[in-house]
Amino acid sequence: MPAKPAPMKKSPAKKAAPKVPEPAPAPAPEPEPVPAEAPPAEAPPAEAPPAETPPAEAAPAEGAPAEAAAEAPAPPAEGEAAPAAPTEGESAPEAAPAEAPVEEPPKAPTPPPPAEPTSAPLNMAVEDVNDSSVTVKWRAPETIGDSGLDGYTVEYCKEGASDWAVANEELTTANRYCIKNLTAGDRLQVRVVAVNAGGRSEAGALAEAVPIREVMDRPKIKMSRTLRSRYVKQVGEQINLVIPFNGKPKPVVSWVKDGQALDTKRVNVRNSDKDSILFIRTSKREDSGVYEMCVKVDSFEDKATLTLQIVELPGPPASVKLVDTWGFNAALEWTAPKDNGNTDITGYTIQKADMKTGDWFTVMEHYHRLNATISDLIMGNSYNFRVFSENKVGVSEECTASKDVATIQKIGIVYKPPEYKEHDFSEAPKFTAPLSDHAATVGYTTKLLCAVRGCPKPKVEWLKNQMVIGDDPKFRQLSNQGVCSLEIRKPCCFDGGVYTCRAKNAQGEATVSCKLEVKQVVIPEGDKEKAK
Description:
This protein has helices at residues 225-228, 525-531, and strands at residues 122-129, 134-139, 151-158, 165-166, 176-179, 187-196, 199-200, 204-205, 210-211, 217-221, 231-234, 239-248, 252-257, 260-261, 268-271, 275-280, 289-297, 300-311, 320-326, 329-334, 345-354, 360-367, 371-374, 382-391, 400-401, 406-407, 427-433, 438-441, 446-455, 459-464, 467-468, 475-480, 483-488, 497-505, 508-519. It is mainly beta and 532 residues long. Among the domains are: 122-211, Immunoglobulin-like (Sandwich), CATH 2.60.40.10; 217-311, Sandwich (Immunoglobulin-like); 320-407, Immunoglobulins (Immunoglobulin-like), CATH 2.60.40.10; 427-519, Immunoglobulin-like, CATH 2.60.40.10. Strands 3, 4, 6, 7, 8 and 9 form a six-stranded antiparallel β-sheet that branches. Strands 11-18-17-13-14 form a five-stranded mixed β-sheet. Strand 3 (151-158) and strand 4 (165-166) form a beta hairpin. The N and C termini lie far apart (185 Å). The model is unreliable at 1-96 (pLDDT under 50).
């Protein structure tokens, strides 16, 4: 038996976790040394022990068997020394397992609501048919749901039977399907069912059974462009509309008005193989409406709508009121007529009448508003007013007059003409065309020209070398429409110099000058002898 190890002194570490006893195993050989735990981040780093020294662990209590496992000591607190290492021959205690936190069991997820089937497919119709197949089309269901749509199942059976056959082995996601390998001459009923995770929806079926045969010419209505938008007629006029169509074998033609059957007492219809005639002998307002023509060959059909509008003259305005009277003006207001003649009101006609004469005069025509101001009335007279309604047919036969009379008073009206500030046109003289230097020849009359403007008209005088020329007969001074001229008659060499034109008025004066040079003509000696 090995010698019992000597007891060790306990480290001054903190209180260790409670010991959990383990089942007593067989005496084990001396364990290998276990590396010491790293100190916490806050504690200063401890010196590494020598290689032959085992790591520090807590020693078992005195008197405990060597086989009993001891708990691992708690990590040393900040500033405390690490626990002492066991001596040679002393077994290292095993670390105690940490207590696992108690976790609550996960809650079961809420089950999703059960899936619901979609609504029925919409607008089942025949797209094509021949002697061995039929092609149907439809629109998607209005309500699909969260589970989505997996596809459609197309089923058919003979007319009068109840055993439905599935045309497509797998679901189709398209909104059309061709049923093939059919027998010519049969009449089939066809329906479509939408399928999703909730199951099958209600069936969308054709309204009538489909005859399996070749259609030579599909029905087609050829309505003219004038009838496509709106056909307008006046009350009392005759209506005779011929609408051609195609189709073979002979199509079945039907008419409805506003979704109801036609009144044969008012409307006559005659159908042939190529056209349909809608005839009304004398139209009335109640004949207005939307007429729908349907041409059908087996499961194929074509529809066209015709909007018929019967119009007449409108009624008068509901009321006319005199709102105010001031100066030479009167203000009127009126309300729209109760009967517009089955068409829009396009305007109004306003008339006035002097109470002295009683004659009516039109003041405004095609007026669009429901109020107006009548001007240019005569002082001292009284006026009455009336209003007519207008639409595309014409002016209403009756009118509505105002109950009150507008009287234009004589007193209390003083006309004060507006005052206008007179514009000041005064302007100091200003030369718009100056004098330019000029050269003249002795004995040949010359002229100096300039232009001046100003208000009032400036006084013009000419100067030669700063001396006023005055009434010298050698000089002729003219001024016309602002153009000033100085004519020098047969100048000599002494007439050269600086000439100035001066203009004066109450606003100021202006001057302009030029230099005149008078040259002598030199005649050569040879020419003089010839002249002699």
